Hints:
2 domains, alpha+beta, five-stranded mixed sheet
Amino acid sequence: MAENKDREFFLPDLCQAQSILLLVLVTELLVLVLVLFESGLYGFNWSHLGLVSMFVQWVVLLSAAMLCNLRPFLSTLTTFQATTLAYVLILLITLIFSVGSEMLFTAPSLWDRGQTMQVGRNLLIATIMTGIAFRYFFLQNQLIRQEQAELNSRVQALQSRIRPHFLFNSMNIIASLISIDPERAEEVVEDLSVLFRASLSDTSNEPVSLNDELELCEKYVHIESLRLDERLKVTWQVDVEPLDVRIPLLTLQPLLENAIYHGIQPLPEGGEVQVKITEADGFLEISISNPVAHENHSHESGNRMALDNIRSRLEAIYGPQASVVSGQSAETYTTEVRYPVNAQSKT
Length: 347
């Protein structure tokens, strides 16, 4: 819960080097514009630019360090409370540095209205720039949250189009077994309940361990093996540690189902489905092969729809680096899935 609130907080994570670098570059650009506005192009003074840059960069970097350390606490507050507290702290830092810099170059006995005006000017600039920055961060955060909500809706829609396919087939298997083998029908119901619970999970677009996905696949293969008997054989080659690898829930199972439904079921003699899972160059690679039923073309559109749904779902979660490709040789139909194994999901 705390992690989700921190992720939704509108202020960016200023503990990251990339954010600090961007902040320094933007600040220096603003300082350059300010100095040019004050002195003009012909009266430009490099010493003045250096002093102003040093002052502003110290204020900005110290403010960033403060927001970095206070971010876990600020994320627990309301947006108004967090904004007010951050605003006050930034203005306090600006005030301290402004008074300190004026006292460094002006003796206390010579402090006059000019120094007070300079401190006030610095506070006014800090107020305006901080307000603009906070407004930008807030709007950017709202846009990201809207995009994430739309992405989650898209993934859920794609997931819902995959679910009925294996659920309806499994119900048909149960119906065919009830009259001839009630005990096995009960086993199928238990396995189906596990699959059904996974398919209706609210976090079905979140990656789970590969081990969990393989267990669901075993449940499905068990259901199909009761119906196809010796006609079905599935071989597994898993060259990764299943507990350490993440995969979106119900990604492998629908592909395995396609291989059985379109490759094994139409063949009177049955056949073998080969599943190979490896990792190479930071990508998880899944290959599922099944024999080709040359005389049967009626299921091609359903097979293509399922592959397109899974491809769209992976691309929605992992971006363009994810891919789902399929191809057919003389005797074998192969589907290959590839996506970055250590990537953070977009959802």
